[in-house]
Amino acid sequence: MELGQEYLDKANECTSNATAAKSEPEQLSWLKLAEGYLRLMRWRQRPADTFGRALSAQGTGQQDSTASH
Fold first, then answer.
1. Is 38:25 a contact under the CB 8 Å cutoff?
2. Domain boundary assignment for the chain
3. Alpha helices of the chain — where are they, by DSSP H?
4. pLDDT 10s per residue in the chain (69 long)?
C-alpha cells in the first residue's frame, strides 16, 4: 500500500473515532490526529526535492566546517 493512501486511511479512522467519541475533548483529539495524517499525506505527495529546497531557502544558521578529521 502506498504511504499516502495509508495516511488517508488513518485519517478516516481517526474521523470515525471522533464521531464515536463520548466527550468533546476526546473528539477534538481524534480530529487533530486526523488533521495531522492529512498534512502528512499532502507532504508525502510533494515532489521529492521540495524538502531540500525548503531547507536551502530557510537555512540552518550553521556554516560548513573546514576542519579535517
1. no
2. 3-45
3. 3-20, 24-44, 50-58
4. 688 889 999 999 999 999 999 999 999 999 999 999 999 888 776 666 666 666 666 766 667 777 777
